Amino acid sequence: MLGWNRKTDRIQVGQWLKGRIYERRCDLSPDGRHFIYFASNARWRSESKGSWSAISRAPYLKALTFLPKGDCYEGGGLFFDDRDYWLNDRYNLHRLARDDSGLRRSMRSPWHESYGKGGCSSIYYIRLQRDGWAMKHTDASSGEEVTTFEKPLRGHWVLRKIAHSGWIRREGTGHDSDEHALWNRRTGRLIELPRWDWAEVDGERLLWVERGRLLSARIDAEGLCEQREIYDFNPLTWASLEAPY
Fold first, then answer.
1. What is the pTM of this model?
2. Which domain of life is it from (predicted)?
């Protein structure tokens, strides 16, 4: 878990987890203080029941609100605002073991549509649209679901996010992964960026992760310019760190 101050581009290394965090089922509160996530370590006889949803204080993972689950369906959630969140739990299978976050759980649905069957798409696609991405189309003809999202940039450029979901695994990825491309609406030029694992618009700059490095650039008529590295994650190794709360 990492803290990122986008005003200064300072990165703070937080806690590690010996397990799997389902990144598509996570969300950060608007004020950046709290993190809701779903994780699994397959220790089915432990207090966590092998998988759990939790709310922590970013950039740490120690649970303030701790909700053991016991399987890997559903889980995680979304924030409505700094104090109110929604838990992805249609069938009420989470067990509340601790609740010290001071936040309020809302039972109302965060979106008028639903995606998937309570898994990653059910949160991820809502989160993308909430954060300004326009869902363009979905194609399932290849045996997996491929959904294209777009966000406008300056100079007629558009950032495309192609979200893969299903059981087909592309080389170097999991079952759920993203590809990206830049498309110019005026000229029709398409720049495919298959090595980008994540990308987002931040004001006048474009941000992305490629080969374990966080990078930024500006956009001009030709595409990317003034590229620079913000942080290289490759040298990071496991460290045991206690949360300061």
1. 0.94
2. Bacteria
